[in-house]
Amino acid sequence: MSTRVIATARLNADCRDALYGQFGLSVNPVSELSRLNSIIGSSQLTLPDLRQLISTPSASSVLSTLAPAEFSRVLSHMESGSRSALEMTAADLQTELAETLTVATTVVTAATRDITANTIAESGLSLGYSVTTHHAETDTCVELRRGHETVLVRVRDGGNVEFDHCGLTGDTSGEHQLELERAAKRYGVVIAQRP
Prior knowledge:
By secondary structure, this protein is of the alpha+beta class.
C-alpha cells in the first residue's frame, strides 16, 4: 500500500537565523529581496533612483553576498564616467538589477530547500530510518528506509513537500507521518499537511 501526503514546510525562527548566519547576513535576505523586487517591478526607475536603491547597506550587503558577480557588474555599469555607464540606460540597468535579484533569490531558495531536506533527514535518523539524500536543481529528495517501510520525500522550492509512504498497511503510514512531522518540528521545520 502507498500513501501520499502533500504538505508545506516552513522554517522556525532558529532555522531562519541559521539561514541568515550561513550567509553571514545580519538582515533577513528573503525580506530584503522581496522589498527590492517590489521596487524594481513597480515602475521605471531613474539612474539616481537605482544608485540610491543599491547603495543602502541592506541591499548592498544582501546582493554582494548572494550574487557577487552579478552585483559587481551592476555596480561597474553605474560608476559615473565609466564607458559602460555612458552606454547603458536606466532601463538597461534596471533589467540587469532584476536579473541580479533573480540570482540572489535562487541562492536563498536553494539554501532554504537544503535546510528543510537536511532537517527531514535528521528527523528520519532520529526515528531509526536509514537516510539517503539526492540533490537536484529545484528539488531535493530524501529516502527514508526502516524495515519494509520506505518513505520518499520530495522537498521543492517554496516549501512544498511530498511524502510517499510505501510498504505499510492500515493506518500505520499516517502514524509514521505524524512521527516525522513531530521530529521535524523538534529540529526546526514545521510541516503542515494540505487538505
